[in-house]
Amino acid sequence: MARNFEVFSGEVNLEKVEPLPEDFDPTAIIKDLLPPVVCNDAIVNGKEKKKEREIVLGRNVHTACLEVTEPDADDEVTGEREAYMASVLARYRKSLIERTKHHLGYPYNLDFDYGALAQLQHFSINNLGDPFIESNYGVHSRQFEVGVLDWFARLWELEKNEYWGYITNCGTEGNLHGILVGREVYPDGILYASAESHYSVFKAARMYRMECEKVKTLLSGEIDCEDFKAKLLLHKDKPAIINVNIGTTVKGAVDDLDLVIQTLEETGFTHDRFYIHCDGALFGLMMPFVKRAPKVTFKKPIGSVSVSGHKFVGCPMPCGVQITRLEHINALSRNVEYLASRDATIMGSRNGHAPLFLWYTLKPERVQRFPERSPEMSQECTLLEGPS
Amino acid sequence: MARNFEVFSGEVNLEKVEPLPEDFDPTAIIKDLLPPVVCNDAIVNGKEKKKEREIVLGRNVHTACLEVTEPDADDEVTGEREAYMASVLARYRKSLIERTKHHLGYPYNLDFDYGALAQLQHFSINNLGDPFIESNYGVHSRQFEVGVLDWFARLWELEKNEYWGYITNCGTEGNLHGILVGREVYPDGILYASAESHYSVFKAARMYRMECEKVKTLLSGEIDCEDFKAKLLLHKDKPAIINVNIGTTVKGAVDDLDLVIQTLEETGFTHDRFYIHCDGALFGLMMPFVKRAPKVTFKKPIGSVSVSGHKFVGCPMPCGVQITRLEHINALSRNVEYLASRDATIMGSRNGHAPLFLWYTLKPERVQRFPERSPEMSQECTLLEGPS
């Protein structure tokens, strides 16, 4: 996956980026303090340079960094700094406009318009913990959050009084949560995920100290159920926790949920011996609108579904939705450590603006356009790796 | 902790809330669809009702929920719904103003003014993964993020080329990360945390399947180093991972970092046998400005420090900062699973607006006011539990 990403990174993105306007000189104002507005030399200079990017974790390279200005007793200096900050922001905005125009390669829906939400931007809105448990902090948007959750529960056919969920910070949090719920339901369960699953799935396995079996994929990128079966047979004594991809990041492959369930059944795994988490980071939301696509529904024996909010719905900040069965969260709540924590989310504090955006963008005119946008988005995504 | 929280919840918050304006009728417009704008009856009706709140995890109670409106073929209906949404938002804004005015009980700094940032609000800014590794997604704010991180590294006296960190979604993510780094450095380490530590610390222990020793506290809420010593002596054979509180959520207690280190040394734990994570959700940022406060610095043998950005600095969305030693992240990177993930953060996608707010709010005039605000904020926090 990392390799695919790299091949792509050198190519598509840079070649499509137009140079910034000619009168744009990022170093013009305060030379000493000012690094390039955008990180990539290729863009700032208006030329295309192809270079291999090294991926070295734990490097701490200050390729681009805007210093936090320190207080100064001298008012004149302070005034200059104020002007400096204003100019940095103005130029940053300009670069965002350019980059947003040409951010080909990521399946983001940037078709959002939220004029009506602008009035709420300066409030510090925080949805603390469980969306269904009241908190002391009054400046929240739980009423919008629960409305959005209801909408998704309906989409995936889970009754209002049978689901639990929350608006996450991103698709990764959805995966981290879904797999954690699976592990809490089956503490000795083994995690099965196809090799083309998002990296957060394997990160979860490591974080949670779970045994993990990487399953082969078909050429299409779908999970290879023959290999899945073989691996299940090796561990018949332990419950199975399965990550099913509803759209992999690299090939946009959709695992055959029905075949996965059938394989489990054929191998002797009864419904009380497995937990399926559907990573629908992008397609989980589109699938119901695409004809003949494998259906994601809680009428099938699945445990949780997560999607990214910022990708298909379009939202100015990363966010996602996680829906699971209420019974699983009830199982967690019998655990005293979890009770003490008063919430079963991963993050304690959650951005209260995200539910507002989702609530607002899931409005009739936009939802009506989903079916027509789905195939187009789906094609855009193919062969591109998107972040979760 | 939960009990303290409850005692407080019934009292301070509600009694200080003024009723909404008399002409404000939340049910006036579309009666069927519209729940109260604020969850709590006590406020909407302009009366104070005290009631015990039950804390039951896994309940799915729709006390307040704003439905997502569905598409409708009838244009007239669509028009009405548009008007409905606009009115819901307008009234929501009104309730936010009220609640923001009277949100006593949470140590949030709401003294922010970010006029200059308004121009950036509609961009979908996403800092994917490691702040120091370039990503394909161009619409990011890494250059601001790294600037903020540099500032914090300087505050806690860690050299620019010796730290690693990132802007988190909240204090909880900082704790989850710090403790995970500790566990990766010492896989068989035991987690020690005082009973008054934030619940995310114990959540981490459970998530990461770590053995955890809850240490007693003094009356002040500080960790009891006598008990700490006794518990250390029980597990001399295993490394120690310690969560040190720089301001507990309930009593605002600051663990004596120096005494914790001394206790470790006296018990025979050499510096290569322990890892200290400092949970400075709120005070980690204030302490350097408060005279005679215990100093948080990487010149002492600590492994990581985290703070909440939205509390003291003031920021319209939850966020935080996590700083650790580069050498620890390098240790992680030698692990192949981590390498594959290309980033050592917990969440893959991160809100790119948060770094902009932090960068902007850490400007001279505001930083200059920190010392004078610190004692005041510190007092406000005492005896109140804040979210992380």
From TrEMBL, chains A, B:
It catalyses: L-serine + H(+) = ethanolamine + CO2. The keyword Lyase applies. One of its GO terms (biological process) is carboxylic acid metabolic process. GO terms for molecular function: carboxy-lyase activity; pyridoxal phosphate binding. The modification N6-(pyridoxal phosphate)lysine is found at residue 311. SUPFAM superfamilies: PLP-dependent transferases (SSF53383). Pfam families: Pyridoxal_deC. Its cofactor is pyridoxal 5'-phosphate. Keywords: Decarboxylase, Lyase, Pyridoxal phosphate. NCBIfam families: PRK02769.1. Belongs to the group II decarboxylase family. This is Serine decarboxylase. It comes from Nyssa sinensis.
